[in-house]
Each structure stands twice: as structure tokens, then as C-alpha cells.
TrEMBL record:
Membrane topology: Multi-pass membrane protein
Main location: membrane
Transmembrane segments: 7-29, 41-64, 76-94, 100-121, 133-156, 162-179, 209-230, 250-270, 282-299, 305-327, 339-362, 368-389
SUPFAM superfamilies, per database record: MFS general substrate transporter
Protein name as catalogued: Major facilitator superfamily permease
InterPro entries in alphabetical order: MFS (IPR011701), MFS_dom (IPR020846), MFS_trans_sf (IPR036259), MFS_Transporters (IPR050171)
Amino acid sequence: MAEKELRLNWLLCGSLIVSIGSSLLWPLTTIYLHNYLHQNLTTAGVVLFINSLALILGSYLGGIIYDRDRANVRRWLLLAIFLATLAVFLLIFFNGWPTFALLLLVDNFGGGVSTTLVNSLATGIKEKSSRQVFNLMYFMQNVGVVIGTLLVGFIVEIDIRWIFITNFVLFLFFLVIVYRHYYVPKAALSHVSPGQPTAQQVKRTPVRYVIVIFAILGLFFAIEAGYSQWQSNLSIYMESLGISVKNYGFLWTINGLVIVFGQPLLNKLLDDWLEVKLVNKIYLGASLFTLGFVTLLYAQTYVHFVVTMIIITLGEILTFPTIPALVDTLSTLGEKGKYQGAVSIFAALGRAIGPLVGGILIDGFSYQVLFLAMIGLMALATVNLLFVAKINLSKK
């Protein structure tokens, strides 16, 4: 009998299912806290911040688990997904204040562990290159975003509880798939021994690469801090301009459609024809994110928000799958879990601090001040990476 291991097709199937479930919930989190549970934007920001801390803790733990207990990763992954699934199940019945926030915390902790473990497992798949694997995962996640955000506007009009029910069913389905198919790839186990660690296992990532990795992570933090405004505070801003929740949700459908149709074209152009380096794709993507927030300073109509979303989505296509792929190429085999965990942690930090700082800036000043702060943060982080990479990646 052939030895079981995770195949790319099941990895992509899992990414799709989780993405559909998650995209039913996250576009509504701030709206639910503000409109249904009657909490102000600062309180909503605090809730998102604390929940992101749980995600960070889970991501950190997931990285440690992968590097230290790789042979048993499947068991840990099943436990993490079960925890998240249980939390979503309880949300069906207990979704008031503050129970909603507490169960969301449990969901995020389980999600943090599972996301890092899945991303780390992805580095062991050798059917395609690391760049291709993460691009395909990202593609399937955004097919899920299209489906999920297309459904969310219709489901919420029936009864918001159906959001939790649908989410639970999808997570349960993912749990079954992980149980049946998420075995550790042979390439990830090839240097793992039950006794003393081999040289491959203990070999550390060169310091100059570590410096570049943390500059990349700093930029990822800045991008996620800005991007989190779209998933939180901008929903309230658009409502204040007379734009409905349904139309806000449709923006994420547009986001997913641009990714589904635009990512293959951009990858063909930049990877196959122009052979653009991974780090240069990140520079270009970060510049588009910054440009998108510049246009937000003048956005007043729905059409303007659609155009801005398209600009930011193009930046997302170039950065989100490229960052874990570049970090993978810079890190050694024995530290894959550590640095993939760091990718999840810095992204979660951005999503944690972004809504909280955003809520404070909006309540204390204005949305325009928030947009200017995000523009400055992303521009500074981009320049820092450009400087650090120029020095450290040019060394022989």
C-alpha cells in the first residue's frame, strides 16, 4: 500500500472550503458588533484586537508544533480544527454580547494553529514549486471569497443565525477532509529522525536572510493593518454614505472575481514572460496598496469604492501569495514552521492593531486621518524592505 501523504488537490480543496466559511463571517464582524450588539467602533476594534492576539498565539504555537513534532502534525491539526468548529457551532445558539466575542476568540485561536500548520505542510509539497503552490492556494481561497461574499448578503437578509449554521457545516466538512487526507508530505519528513536531529534540522537561516524576512514581515504587517480597515471600519464608513450592507458585501465578491480572473494573467505576465523576482512583485503590490488608500481620501460614491477595491485587489494578488513563498525560499528546512508561523503572526498583528487604531483615529479625528496614517505606514515599510533587501540579497 502506498504511503499516505497530503496531495496538492486536497490542500486546495481545504483552502476553498475554509475560505467560503470564513468569508461568510469576517465581512460582518464589525457590522454585527456595531449594529446588532450595539457596540461602538472602539469596542469593536478592541474585540478584533483581542481575537487577533488569540490568532497570533495560535500561529506561534503552530510553528513550534511543526518544527518540533512534525511527524504528528496531523493530530494537532485535527485538534485545532475541532476547536474552531466547536466554537462556530456554539455561536449558532450563543451569539449575544459578550459571548460572541469570547467564542470568536476560541475560533481565532484554533484558526491560527491550523493556518500555520497547513501553510507549513504546503512547503513540503513538491508536485509544484513553492511559488506555484502558494499561488494556487491563494487562488482557491479567493474563489471561496467570491462564493462566500456572494452568499452573505442573501443569507443575512433571511436570518444572521444562518451565517453561523453554514459556517459550522463547512468547517465540519473540512474536519472530515483533514482526517482523511492531510498526512505529512514525504519531503517534509525526509530529514526527520526519531533520535538526534540531523544537520539539516538544526541548520539555522543565515542572519542576512533573517533580516530580509523581518523586513518582509514588517511590510506584511503594514499592508494587513491597512487592509483590515476594509474588513472593519470601512463598512461603517460606507453605511454613513448611504451604501447598503449588501453592496458592501458585493465589494468582496468583486475582490474575489478580480483575483480569480486577474491572478492567472498577472502570474503569466510577471512570472513566465517577464520573470519578475519575488521581491519585486512585493514592491509593486505594496505600491498599489498605497495608491489605493490615496484614492480613498476622495471616495464618496459606490463606483469610486469599486475602483479603489480593484486597485487594492491587484496589490493583494501580488503580495499575499508571494510573501509566504519568498519567506519559504529564504528559510532553512529546520525553520520552515518557525517562519511560516511568523508570516501568520505578523499578518494577524496587522489585523489586530489595524481596526483598534482605526477606531481610535476615527472616533478622535476622522476617516481622512486614518487613511493618511495607513498611507504613511505602508510607504515607510515598503522603503524599508527596498533598502534592506538591496543590502542583504545582493551579497554572495
